[in-house]
Automatic annotation (TrEMBL), chain A:
It comes from the Bacteria. Transmembrane segments: none annotated. It comes from Domibacillus antri. The keyword Membrane does not apply. Residues 37-216 form the FAD-binding PCMH-type domain. This is Glycolate oxidase subunit GlcD. NCBIfam families: glcD (TIGR00387). InterPro entries: FAD-bd_oxidored_4_C, FAD-bd_PCMH, FAD-bd_PCMH-like_sf, FAD-bd_PCMH_sub2, FAD-linked_Oxase-like_C, FAD-linked_OxidoTrans_Type4, GlcD, Oxid_FAD_bind_N.
From TrEMBL, chain B:
Keywords: 4Fe-4S, Electron transport, Iron, Iron-sulfur, Metal-binding, Repeat, Transport. This is Glycolate oxidase iron-sulfur subunit. GO terms for molecular function: 4 iron, 4 sulfur cluster binding; glycolate dehydrogenase activity; metal ion binding. It comes from the Bacteria. Its cofactor is [4Fe-4S] cluster. InterPro entries: 4Fe4S_Fe-S-bd, 4Fe4S_Fe_S_CS, Cys_rich_dom, Glc_ox_4Fe-4S, Helical_ferredxn. It catalyses: (R)-lactate + A = pyruvate + AH2; glycolate + A = glyoxylate + AH2. It is an enzyme of class 1 (oxidoreductase). Binds 2 [4Fe-4S] clusters. Residues 15-47, 70-93 form the 4Fe-4S ferredoxin-type domain. It comes from Domibacillus antri.
């Protein structure tokens, strides 16, 4: 609990209506979208501008109060759970699109803007912001930048990092800094923009961002290819890339995922096949048509049992929307849904999918897999029950094996969800002790008092716990 | 964990005992519901006013993590119960059921003030369960309207003593039918076209009194669509008002009487013309799932439920009957429960689009609640009016002359919105069946 004295200080900065210490008010910010992680903050504070953020940070530093910046709480690695108490910082007031610059092709936003609202606003001007995490209807830009979110279009267009040009941020010492600019070229000093992007709220509070836009692709086509074997689908992915075609989207869903998604979306997805590839290409009409034909030929050659192009835009949207719901739809199956995002070089997709199935069998757990096949980013998902401790231990062991396999194949423990608390015990597997040491040194120089989102990224002990938490 | 009062402790124990833990766990907190929630948006993205937040509060109380204090109760009370969060929930969480149970628990432990208690008793026990008393009550309203008393009241400024929403509501109430019209309607009707189905009509309590003409129009449309119609005796209020207000036992009694009444008819379908009632009727299987005598019978009952627009659509009414009207722009406000619980939103639009002369223009956010929500617009007046004002901005943007709805509560709320905007001379609100009968060339009111 924070004392009345400190509460008064916060109230003086943001007003009483923007400081909540009630049990109910704190409870609803004690979680994010990660199963089995929950911890009450001591207060919830909603600043109205950068200056107020800086003043709040100063109070927190003086009083050693943890700060957890939070967008819409859709994080999947417990990155926004206030595990050590302190304050949750909300950006509901800082939610404006400040400028759309059509000469420099940039958009400048406050962190609380909902991703899809910004995408819609720039698309009205014929501009395109490609990063499209599945939660984009809910997530905020601030959250996307802090987590370096990916999405369905990552294969061709990259992830959030590739679109952040400039940031305004409040450092843990209260200083307000500006990094980068509306510049295609800028090598002035260390690239702090890239350092802060994906820093999971552990280095600074991002208060404004300028993002890169590109011209809207002229057309888009969406295709569904069905397979009776997972291997054949994975082989198609490799063949498409080897044919020097980079689709905008190249997603795959296995049979259990398909069934759960169809139960929810009811759009007539096939549930009697082993795997589906959802493929999109965008660009000038003639190039899209040519690529889609080539892709269709490859899929057919690789034993697809059916290849269909969506007839209308509405049909295409229904397919991609259904894919975005995959994770939550899998939550229908069991009370607890554990999701990971192990990622491998895309040439290893077939091997990784095969390994996941073997690992699931070895540990006697169910694992459904879907994900961004084109960029090697998989989402093995385990429907389970947190109350079944025996099974939870097997789930944990299975995911440890999956991480180990991903790293063995040249991959990583997380492609787009972030480390948070959930994957912190495995970070050293990827980085090595030397990598962890330099990261800790960076953290120390930004935040010597460890007030910025403490308990995230760095584990107290490596490889101890994964899905079981107090 | 803070210390709890005796009342809070009792509520907490009831939560542990009665709340469906599996359903609470089924929410995986992805947040996909957030953009669909009117109160989350209207409160400037306050998580405690979102479905995810409310479920988290229910679970925290269930687990003993927090006390069921006033803030928790306030959060549950401010929920419209529109259930827009359910169709968008990929995990399929039955939010409405959780909300109803939680409210029922709070209500069991609530000491209402004497006047509130009296009103609740009159409404939930004295009035709505008794169709004859509903007729009396509405007859009194008719006398008020026709006797000149209404004019006198307005001139005297008597209504100024009431909240603004009640004042406008008083102006928005429809002219009610005379008592003999309510009493003298036959109980069965024959198809006026080649026979397609036998249907039993759930005529409703409010619909069969204040909105009698709309019920009569419903019957005519069904006849034209080739239906033989029975209106079973012994049916009564669906129980939705009770269920949504934490009076679950009252709701169960009404449900059983309705099942008794409709079982005898052997009709192919049971038809309603009020989305709010329909959604409650179609949930009888859940309401009575633990009742050994009624559980299976409730399932049979709900399997037959259809909204009037759905059956007309399925029977190709709009292809077989010529529909036309004076050139005008029309728009549609979804009934939340018709859309979110009965999954009926294509049928009404298809019917309206088939009317020659009517230029149907979709309203932005037509699928979002208008703020009527049963008695919400009276008990949570401020939020209701805030939602309504935002709704009317979208309605005005369509430039529609006619706002169509499919539920009496929504209809009254739309009339209220038109009143508040001062648009009464330019814009009207109608129930979709009245619009369709008008398009058949028969004037209703």
């Amino acid at each position: 609990m924070i004392s009345d004295y400190i509460k008064t200080k916060f109230t003086a900065i943001v007003g009483a209506e923007n400081v909540d210490v009630s049990p109910a008010g704190r409870l609803v910010y004690s979680y994010d979208a990660t199963p089995n992680f929950q911890s009450m903050p001591d207060a919830v504070i909603a600043p109205r501008n950068t200056k107020e953020v800086s003043q709040i940070v100063n109070v927190c530093r003086e009083e050693k109060i943890p700060i957890v910046p939070r967008g819409s709480g859709t994080n999947l690695a417990a990155g926004t759970v206030p595990s050590e108490g302190g304050i949750v910082l909300l950006f509901k007031h800082m939610n404006q699109i400040l400028e759309i610059d059509e000469e420099n092709l940039t958009v400048t936003v406050q962190p609380g803007v909902v991703t899809l609202n910004m995408i819609n606003a720039v698309e009205k001007r014929g501009l395109f912001y490609p990063p499209d995490p599945s939660s984009m209807k809910i997530s905020t830009i601030g959250g996307n930048i802090n987590e370096n979110s990916g999405g369905l279009r990552g294969l061709k267009y990259g992830v959030t990092r590739d679109y952040v040009m400039a940031l305004e941020a409040v450092l843990p010492n209260g200083d307000i800094i500006r990094t980068g600019g509306k510049l295609a070229k800028d090598v002035a000093g260390y690239d702090l923009t890239r350092l802060l992007t994906g820093s999971e709220g552990t280095l600074a509070v991002i208060t404004e961002a300028t993002l890169k836009l590109i011209p809207m692709p002229e057309t888009k086509q969406t295709m569904l290819a069905l397979y009776q074997s997972m291997d054949a689908a994975a082989k198609s992915v490799s063949e498409i890339i080897a044919a020097k075609i980079i689709p905008a989207t190249l997603e795959f869903l296995d049979r259990p995922t398909l069934k759960a998604v169809e139960d929810f979306a009811k759009i007539g997805l096939p549930t009697d096949v082993e795997a589906v590839l959802l493929i999109e290409q965008d660009g000038p009409a003639e190039i899209v048509a040519r690529d889609m034909q080539k892709i269709a030929d490859i899929c057919t050659r690789e034993q697809a049992v059916s290849v269909q192009i969506a007839a209308t835009e509405a049909e295409a949207l229904a397919l991609t929307s259904a894919r975005r719901a995959a994770l939550s739809a899998l939550a229908r199956l069991k009370p607890t849904t554990i999701l990971e995002d192990a990622t491998v070089p895309r040439s290893e997709i077939a091997n990784m999918v095969k390994a996941i199935n073997e690992i699931a069998a070895k540990h006697n757990v169910t694992i459904a897999t879907f994900g961004h096949a084109g960029d090697g980013n998989l989402h093995p998902t385990c429907p389970t029950d947190a109350r079944d401790h025996d099974e939870m231990e097997r789930v944990e062991a299975a995911f440890a094996d999956i991480f180990a396999k991903a790293i063995e194949l040249g991959g990583t423990i997380t492609g787009e969800h972030g480390v948070g608390m959930m994957k912190a015990p495995y970070l050293e597997w990827k980085m090595g002790p030397e990598g962890i040491a330099i990261m800790k040194a960076i953290k120390q120089s930004f935040d010597p008092d460890n007030i910025m989102n403490p308990g995230k990224i760095f584990a107290k002990e490596t490889r101890k716990r994964l899905v079981i938490s107090q | 964990m803070t210390t709890m009062t005796a009342r809070e402790k009792a509520i907490q124990e009831s939560f542990s005992l009665r709340m469906d833990e599996a359903e609470l766990l089924n929410c995986m907190r992805c947040g996909f519901c957030l953009p669909s929630c009117p109160t989350y948006l209207e409160t400037g993205l306050d998580e405690s006013q979102s479905p995810r937040g409310r479920i988290a509060l229910m679970k925290a109380v269930h687990d003993g993590l927090i006390a069921p204090d006033d803030d928790v109760e306030k959060s549950l009370n401010l929920c419209l119960g529109c259930r827009a969060c359910e169709p968008v929930c990929p995990a399929g969480v039955k939010y409405g059921h959780l909300l109803e149970e939680a409210r029922d628990i709070f209500n069991d432990h609530n000491e209402h003030s004497a006047p509130v208690k009296a009103v609740r008793k009159t409404v939930f026990e004295g009035l709505f369960p008794h169709q004859n008393r509903m007729e009396h009550a509405v007859t009194l309203l008719g006398i008020y309207q026709r006797s000149g008393l209404q004019n006198a009241t307005r001139k005297l400024g008597f209504m100024k003593l009431f909240p603004e929403s009640m004042q406008a509501m008083e102006r928005a109430l429809p002219a009610v039918p005379k008592k003999r019209d309510m009493k003298n309607r036959p109980r069965s009707f024959s198809a006026l076209a080649e026979k397609t189905a036998t249907v039993a009509f759930f005529s409703g309590c409010l619909m069969d009194t204040m909105f009698l003409e709309t019920n009569n129009a419903t019957i005519k449309l069904l006849q034209k669509a080739g239906c033989d119609i029975v209106i079973p005796d012994g049916q009564n209020c669906c129980g939705a008002l009770h269920g949504h207000s934490g009076e679950k036992d009252g709701a169960k009694n009404l449900a059983k009487r309705n099942i008794d009444a409709f079982e005898k008819t052997n009709a192919d379908y049971i038809i309603t013309n009020a989305g709010g009632c329909g959604a409650f009727l179609i949930d009888y299987d859940h309401l009575l799932k633990d009742d050994p005598e009624y559980a299976d019978r409730a399932k049979a009952f709900t399997a037959k439920m259809k909204d009037i627009t759905q059956i007309l659509f399925e029977l190709d009414f709009h292809q077989r009957i010529e529909l036309k009207m004076e050139p005008q722009t029309i728009t549609y406000q979804d009934s939340c429960h018709l859309r979110n619980v009965m999954n009926t939103h294509i049928a009404p639009r298809a019917l309206m689009n088939a009317i020659d002369g009517a230029n149907y223009r979709e309203m932005e956010n037509a699928d979002s609640c208008c703020g009527s929500a049963g008695i919400y617009n009276i008990v949570e007046s401020d939020m209701s009016m805030q939602i309504l004002d935002h709704k009317m901005e979208k309605a005005k943007a369509t430039e529609a002359h006619t706002i169509v709805t499919a539920n009496p509560g929504c209809l009254l709320q739309m009339k209220l919105g038109i009143e508040r905007e001062g648009l009464s001379d330019k814009v009207r609100a109608v129930h979709i069946v009245d619009l369709l009968l008008e398009a058949c060339g028969e004037l209703t009111h």
